[in-house]
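Possible regression after last week's pipeline update?

I re-ran a chain I had predicted before the update to compare outputs. Posting the input and the new output here so someone can diff against the archived version. Not blocking, just want to make sure nothing changed silently.
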Amino acid sequence: MIANPDLNLGIFPLPNDTYETTNTLSGIDAAVCISAKASEEEKEAAYKFLEFLAQPENAQLFCDAEGAPACITGVVHKDEGVQPMLDLISAGQVHDWMASTIDNNVVTDLYNVTQGFWSEKNVESYLKQMDESIAITSAE
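New output (post-update):
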């Protein structure tokens, strides 16, 4: 959006069989702030930083600049192209990041398959490739 503010960009979840059974990936990425190997001083600084980010006015600035939905009450995401995902998140139709629940080799391959979908735009082929990818990489 910085490079082309006129870009008409939107996002959508990978659909399930019905809208009611469709979930979107959602999570909070605090990994940049907290480390198990951090010193007590570093941990204290990280918690202060998270507290700072959690203040609605700061979370709103971050949301506006980053474009990612915020989990902070009172923060409003202004990009209408993200609304389909926000509706699912508000309804509780969420799933944690794939990388948190699926082996890394499977996640990497699924990302590659999904990237291929954008060039082919063939839903049947995409679903077949997803099934094949899961079967092959899960067996490794």
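Follow-up from reviewer: compared with the archived run. The CA atoms of residues 36 and 95 lie 25 Å apart. Marking as no regression found.
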